[in-house]
């Protein structure tokens, strides 16, 4: 294991940023720390880097304790959200910086530095900017230079703090693919922080989902998306429709309606959350059917990038609730739905969590 | 040259405010300064040259420029240090000390002058200790430097402070993460970013010191060829009704002031260009 | 390197080992703070103490007598008279020029701003000299002035003129950046609501600039009372007539009347302290507003 985080706790005043975090990150993989703002993901990254001090716990790289080590001696590459390029230095000088500040004994020769810097600039496809200043580059270019600068010192681990956060959507998508490709070439153990689930799913080998200073789940993108361990993870990775109800003999009762559901592990009478993603719901126009939640069509969006039907129903205590169903355009047209039409929603797949057990919500994870 | 206002603005009062400002500036500033330059230009070149190149005058230039330069340099170092300490560290009475930095702006120069000479005279609170090492401060060129350091003290601190406050911590963190020692980070990352502010503060302190009179006359002793600064010579010549001599030297000082002002404006233009995105 | 590899849940005091990337080691911090404090005490605090000590060394009675001595009292009256004339003029000029610069676009604006800055850079003795050459008895207008029995140099009008010149930038320099930063939207809004230009200034602009204006006035006031070099050239140092407070201090000092010199100095020192106290208060006030906004 290249990075080992053990029992890390961190408070800012009364706010618990990290609550006893333990984590092991495998060598050569690209791991995403995913979570909403305030979940502690950036704090954890900064503690791994040595930019922040944990109240307790330890950090080790390749079996060697780093907890008290100064950031300049940890051998990490750190990429900041706002690039943090040195404005008074050229691109070349920025990338060469980590090498030129080495103590005389360890410092490579000028020729070696030149060779290294130029090869890195070629790697990030920006060798033609060597003599420019950072303020002459676009945001995406600056971030690639920041990455080249971090890689120049051949870091043991590469840490990226919301590396695409300051970029506009198009550049972000492009840079994302580029980072994935780059990582496949250089295989340095990398951790990046993001609040964007799509980004995490697309780029990383592993995802660590964090919430309120704790780890909710960790696993491959497939695992966390397909088998969310907690309601939080389910809700955070993509849109969901949520049903509050009670499990009663092969069905979940939600107010006046019910959904069929078979689960041997669930005890009769348990209060549950049931989740279904928009593409896991079907629309039944037969209102008299016994299976399915009654809802009213409020909007039909058959065209555009995300064809879907928006509906409104009521939850178990009679308050209005919003639902979303994603269907292919031809299915939507086939249903010939009218605004205001009453329909029933039937899940093709349902993920059920016991409601009262906070242990499930918090994620009792030990891998 | 100011009249081509794009008078499309709906806000009233351009003509009256601009008119009054220009009138006032013309009478109190433009005509008098133009008058001095005209007065000097009416002198013959020989007369002008004799006045400005007299050995006693040249000695005063040397002292004024050297002492101002040393004073501004001391302020460059300690002003940077003070700005750093005030922005980055916490210590008792910090707010009061921060406020007191402006004292040389607000305290009349004559008061500063008698306070400094009393302190640094060979019997004074500070001077007596230097006396033990046979170092005289008051009535020597060191005294001139002390006075010029005093009046230039706020400039470097006040130009550097805001830049240091806005300095992105991420740049320091990036430098440290790349393996740089703290000293290397300060020298290679922080100082270059502060350079325009440091130079502006230095130039302002230097300009102020060059023209300073009140705080120096008490501590300098005013010995010709030794501790006589150029402004003092101008006063002496004016009091002896040697208007030509005074005007010639005054013109030299005025030109020096304009040049410094240009340098300062250039520095500000340079820094805004260099550090904007 | 630490040997702690087995993490415990107990908070460990690692303050001595770990160091933040943006911080220096403690001994460096202490050395820097110490050096700065020594430097600032030598240059800022000791001069202050020596003035106050000199003024009150022989008791309040002596101090009071020194202030009330006729020539000292005359110098105080003259200084207050000068300030009462110069400060209002500079307020009007400062507000007018800041209004023109901040609310309108015109060619030559940068030249105008540099021109306002110039009195900062010109030596006060050169300022004095300029007016001696214009109005002095040997100056250009000297004959005409004496023919009409007018005295400017070695008289009060000359003192007022040079001080007005020297303190010209102070209020304008405070107001220009402030008004530029505030833009003109609020004024335009007020005008569209039917307010007159004057009412707009009074109810919209003035409340926005009042703190900057106050500091400008207080600084202008302190500098006007303390102006020395320029006044030294034009006043002629006639005791009881053309000596402002700083000139009177010089006279007393040169006559070895140190206690009296420090007593008059203590008044100006008090004024300087009040000035920087008000400045700090305004800055504190603005910071607080910015934080709560």
UniProtKB/TrEMBL annotation, chain A:
Presence of the UniProt keyword Electron transport in the record: no
Keyword terms, alphabetized: ATP-binding, Cell membrane, Membrane, Nucleotide-binding, Sulfate transport, Translocase, Transport
Record's keyword annotation contains Cell division: no
CDD domains to which the protein is assigned, alphabetical: ABC_CysA_sulfate_importer
GO MF terms held by the record: ABC-type sulfate transporter activity; ATP binding; ATP hydrolysis activity
GO cellular component terms, A-Z: ATP-binding cassette (ABC) transporter complex
Occurrences of domain ABC transporter (ranges): 3-237
SMART domains in the cross-refs: AAA
Protein name: Putative sulfate transport ATP-binding protein
UniProtKB/TrEMBL annotation, chain B:
Annotated GO CC locations: plasma membrane
Subcellular localization: Cell membrane
PROSITE patterns: ABC_TM1
InterPro entries: CysT_permease, MetI-like, MetI-like_sf, Sulph_transpt2
Entry keyword set: Membrane, Sulfate transport, Transmembrane, Transmembrane helix, Transport
Keyword ATP-binding: no
GO molecular function term, any single one: ABC-type sulfate transporter activity
Domain ABC transmembrane type-1: 61-264
Top-level taxon in the UniProt lineage: Bacteria
Membrane topology listed for this record: Multi-pass membrane protein
Subcellular location, principal: membrane
Self-association state and partner proteins as the record states: The complex is composed of two ATP-binding proteins (CysA), two transmembrane proteins (CysT and CysW) and a solute-binding protein (CysP).
Homology family: Belongs to the binding-protein-dependent transport system permease family. CysTW subfamily.
Protein name, entry field: Sulfate transport system permease protein CysT
Higher taxonomy: Bacteria, Pseudomonadati, Pseudomonadota, Gammaproteobacteria, Thiotrichales
From TrEMBL, chain C:
Keyword flag Transport: yes
GO cellular component: plasma membrane
Coiled-coil region(s): none
UniProt GO MF annotations: ABC-type sulfate transporter activity
Keyword terms of this UniProt record: Cell inner membrane, Cell membrane, Membrane, Sulfate transport, Transmembrane, Transmembrane helix, Transport
Matching SUPFAM superfamilies: MetI-like
Residue ranges crossing the lipid bilayer per the database entry: 32-56, 76-99, 120-140, 152-172, 213-236, 256-278
Domain ABC transmembrane type-1 stretches: 76-279
Chain's role: Part of the ABC transporter complex CysAWTP (TC 3.A.1.6.1) involved in sulfate/thiosulfate import. Probably responsible for the translocation of the substrate across the membrane.
Subunit comment: The complex is composed of two ATP-binding proteins (CysA), two transmembrane proteins (CysT and CysW) and a solute-binding protein (CysP).
Protein name: Sulfate transport system permease protein CysW
């Amino acid at each position: 294991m290249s990075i080992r985080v053990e029992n890390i706790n961190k408070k800012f005043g009364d706010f618990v940023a990290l609550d006893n975090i333990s984590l092991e990150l495998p060598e050569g993989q690209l791991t995403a720390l995913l979570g909403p703002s305030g979940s502690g993901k950036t704090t954890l990254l900064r503690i791994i880097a040595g930019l922040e001090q944990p109240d307790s716990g330890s950090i080790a790289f390749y079996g060697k304790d780093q907890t008290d080590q100064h950031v300049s001696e940890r051998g990490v590459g750190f990429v900041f959200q706002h690039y943090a390029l040195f404005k008074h230095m050229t691109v070349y000088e920025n990338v060469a910086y980590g090498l030129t500040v080495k103590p005389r004994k360890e410092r490579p020769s000028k020729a070696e530095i030149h060779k290294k810097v130029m090869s890195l600039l070629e790697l990030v496809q920006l060798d033609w900017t060597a003599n420019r200043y950072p303020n002459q580059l676009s945001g995406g270019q600056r971030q690639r230079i920041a990455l080249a600068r971090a890689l120049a010192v051949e870091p043991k681990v590469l840490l990226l703090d919301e590396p695409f956060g300051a970029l506009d959507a198009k550049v972000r998508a492009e840079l994302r693919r580029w980072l994935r490709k780059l990582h496949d070439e250089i295989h340095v153990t990398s951790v990046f922080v993001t609040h964007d689930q799509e980004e995490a799913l697309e780029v990383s080998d592993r995802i660590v989902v964090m919430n309120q200073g704790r780890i909710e789940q960790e696993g491959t993108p497939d695992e966390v998306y397909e088998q969310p361990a907690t309601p939080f993870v389910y809700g955070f990775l993509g849109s969901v429709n949520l049903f509050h109800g009670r499990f009663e003999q092969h069905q979940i009762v939600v107010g006046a309606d019910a959904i069929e559901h078979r689960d041997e592990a669930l005890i009769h009478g348990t209060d549950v959350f049931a989740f279904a993603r928009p593409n896991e719901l079907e629309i039944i126009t037969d209102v008299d059917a016994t299976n399915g939640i009654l809802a009213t069509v409020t909007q039909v969006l058959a065209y555009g990038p995300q064809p879907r039907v928006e509906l409104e129903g009521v939850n178990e205590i009679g308050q209005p609730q919003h639902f979303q169903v994603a269907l292919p355009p031809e299915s939507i047209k086939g249903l010939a739905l009218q605004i205001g039409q009453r329909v029933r929603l039937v899940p093709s797949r349902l993920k059920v969590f016991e409601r009262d057990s906070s242990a499930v919500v918090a994620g009792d994870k030990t891998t | 040259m100011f009249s081509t206002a794009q008078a499309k603005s709906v806000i009233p009062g351009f003509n009256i405010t601009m008119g009054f400002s220009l009138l006032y500036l013309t009478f109190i500033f433009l005509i008098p300064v133009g008058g001095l330059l005209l007065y000097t230009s009416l002198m013959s070149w020989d007369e002008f040259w004799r006045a400005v190149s007299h050995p006693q005058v040249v000695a005063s230039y040397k002292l004024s420029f050297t002492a101002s330069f040393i004073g501004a340099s001391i302020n460059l170092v300690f002003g940077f240090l003070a700005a750093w300490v005030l922005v980055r560290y916490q210590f008792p009475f910090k707010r009061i000390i921060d406020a007191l930095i402006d004292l040389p702006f607000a305290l009349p120069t004559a008061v500063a002058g008698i306070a400094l000479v009393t302190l640094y005279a060979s019997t004074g609170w500070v001077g007596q200790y230097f006396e033990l090492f046979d170092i005289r401060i008051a009535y020597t060129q060191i005294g001139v430097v002390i006075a010029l350091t005093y009046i230039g003290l706020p400039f470097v601190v006040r130009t550097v402070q805001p830049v240091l406050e806005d300095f992105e911590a991420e740049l320091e963190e990036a430098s440290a993460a790349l393996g740089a020692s703290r000293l290397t980070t300060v020298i290679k990352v922080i100082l270059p970013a502060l350079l325009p502010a440091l130079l502006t503060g230095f130039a302002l302190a230097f300009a102020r010191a060059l023209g300073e009179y009140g705080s120096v006359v008490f501590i300098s002793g005013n010995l010709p060829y030794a501790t006589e600064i150029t402004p003092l010579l101008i006063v002496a010549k004016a009091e002896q009704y040697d208007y030509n001599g005074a005007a010639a030297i005054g013109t030299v000082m005025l030109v020096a002031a304009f040049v410094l002002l240009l340098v300062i404006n250039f520095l500000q233009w340079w820094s805004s260009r260099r550090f904007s995105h | 390197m630490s040997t702690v590899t087995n993490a415990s849940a107990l908070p460990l005091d690692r303050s001595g080992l770990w160091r933040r990337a943006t911080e220096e080691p403690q001994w460096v911090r202490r050395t820097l703070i110490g050096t700065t404090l020594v430097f600032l005490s030598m240059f800022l605090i000791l001069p202050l103490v020596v003035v106050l000590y000199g003024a009150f060394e022989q008791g309040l009675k002596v101090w009071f007598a020194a202030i009330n001595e006729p020539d000292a009292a005359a110098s105080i009256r003259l200084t207050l008279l000068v300030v009462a004339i110069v400060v209002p003029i500079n307020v009007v000029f400062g507000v007018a020029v800041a209004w023109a610069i901040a609310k309108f676009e015109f060619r030559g604006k940068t030249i105008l701003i540099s021109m306002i800055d110039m009195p900062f850079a010109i030596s006060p003795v050169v300022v004095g000299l300029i007016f001696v050459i214009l109005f002095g008895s040997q100056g250009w207008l000297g004959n005409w002035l004496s023919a009409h029995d007018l005295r400017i140099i070695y008289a009060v009008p000359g003192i007022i003129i040079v001080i007005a010149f020297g303190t010209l930038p102070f209020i304008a320099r405070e107001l220009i950046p402030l008004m530029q930063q505030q833009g003109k939207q609020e004024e335009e809004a007020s005008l569209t609501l039917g307010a007159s230009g004057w009412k707009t200034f009074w109810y919209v602009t003035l409340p926005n600039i009042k703190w900057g204006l106050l500091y400008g006035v207080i600084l202008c006031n302190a500098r006007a009372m303390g102006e020395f070099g320029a006044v030294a050239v034009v006043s002629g140092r006639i005791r009881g007539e053309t000596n402002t407070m700083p000139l009177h201090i010089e006279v007393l000092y040169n006559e070895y009347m140190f206690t009296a010199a420090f007593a008059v100095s203590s008044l100006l020192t008090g004024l300087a302290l009040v000035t920087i106290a008000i400045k700090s208060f305004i800055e504190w006030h603005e910071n607080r507003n910015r934080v709560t906004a």
